[in-house]
Design the sequence.
């Protein structure tokens, strides 16, 4: 039994021994970020449970030794993985569940859940809002499934799955109201290519992760409209200010908006060619309709759904958010992107 597994158990389950597979860590989701997190965790613990909703994809994974749909060059030792197509089975067997599903589909996935998870440790790597609930994911697990707040964590920070798959140096932030819990899970993730910090600002990290996707769509639209780097720098400066205003209004906490969980995640999502939200926005800026852009993309641009959710949430917060408003106008009110961005330029400083 490795030191890290000992530490994880002593902090979260002090009366429960590791016991091999039982009580371990399971991944919920089969996309690129889920695959990258699975690589990190299994590399540290030697075993994971892994839920994928499609049994045919599990069969292909076992045959090929890699995810057949995402990060296909990343190979796994499948003897270290217990696969499940039954969400309740994996939820009953494992004590720590890492949810890594696109936010628009999370609620539908959880509709299948009948197992009691109130005593589990829940980790959310979902960078979005729960549809129709207007809650960040940690809040939803606490209110809907009675998971104590100090048993809920989030994974934040600039972290493209493609770069994790290539062992490129990545900095993550683990958010949790309980410092010891955050530190224990941080140790599960730390490696030569993954460095991890902890923070008590779980809701701030989650809201920042939603907003950065919205802002990346805006950056992509501007890129598609051929705005240059000079303007992009001004846009991102204003995105940081807008994010800071919102976080301060809805989740007051001692935070530095320049930390990697906020500014870092925003920057990589707005600039990187790996960013699906930037790609989606670029297509809109080049003249694609929203529907045609969604059809052409193979992965979900969560910022599209996040934009609508954040507009609903801001009806209560009433924060000045001209960039959010502009993206909403383009995506949901069919305002001409060139005209909308030109109007936005007059509001930026």
Sequence:
């Amino acid at each position: 039994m490795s030191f890290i597994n000992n530490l994880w158990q002593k902090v979260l389950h002090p009366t429960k021994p590791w016991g091999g597979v039982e009580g371990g860590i399971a991944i919920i989701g089969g996309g690129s970020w889920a695959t990258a997190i699975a690589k990190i965790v299994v590399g540290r613990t030697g075993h994971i449970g892994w839920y994928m909703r499609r049994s045919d994809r599990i069969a292909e994974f076992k045959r090929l030794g890699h995810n057949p749909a995402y990060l296909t060059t990343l190979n796994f030792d499948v003897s270290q993985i217990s696969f499940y197509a039954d969400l309740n089975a994996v939820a009953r067997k494992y004590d720590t569940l890492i949810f890594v599903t696109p936010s628009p589909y999370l609620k539908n996935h959880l509709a299948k859940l009948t197992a009691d998870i109130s005593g589990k440790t829940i980790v959310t790597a979902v960078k979005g809002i729960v549809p129709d609930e207007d809650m960040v994911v940690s809040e939803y697990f606490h209110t809907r499934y009675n998971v104590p707040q100090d048993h809920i964590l989030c994974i934040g920070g600039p972290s493209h799955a493609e770069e994790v798959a290539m062992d490129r140096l990545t900095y993550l932030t683990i958010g949790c109201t309980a410092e010891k819990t955050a530190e224990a899970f941080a140790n599960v993730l730390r490696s030569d290519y993954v460095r991890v910090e902890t923070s008590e600002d779980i809701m701030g990290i989650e809201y920042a992760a939603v907003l950065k996707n919205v802002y990346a769509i805006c950056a992509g639209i501007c890129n598609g409209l051929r705005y240059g780097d000079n303007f992009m720098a001004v846009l991102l400066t204003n995105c940081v200010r807008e994010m800071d205003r919102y976080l301060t209004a809805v989740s007051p906490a001692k935070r530095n908006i320049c930390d990697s969980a906020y500014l870092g995640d925003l920057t990589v999502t707005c600039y990187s060619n790996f960013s699906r939200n930037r790609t989606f926005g670029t297509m809109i800026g080049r003249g694609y309709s929203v529907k045609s852009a969604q059809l052409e993309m193979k992965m979900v641009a969560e910022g599209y759904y996040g934009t609508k959710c954040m507009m609903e949430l801001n009806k209560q917060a009433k924060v000045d958010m001209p960039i959010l408003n502009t993206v909403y106008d383009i995506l949901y009110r069919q305002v001409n992107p060139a005209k909308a961005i030109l109007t936005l330029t007059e509001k930026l400083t």
In short: The longest helix spans residues 202-224. Residues 10-22 have pLDDT under 50 and may be disordered.
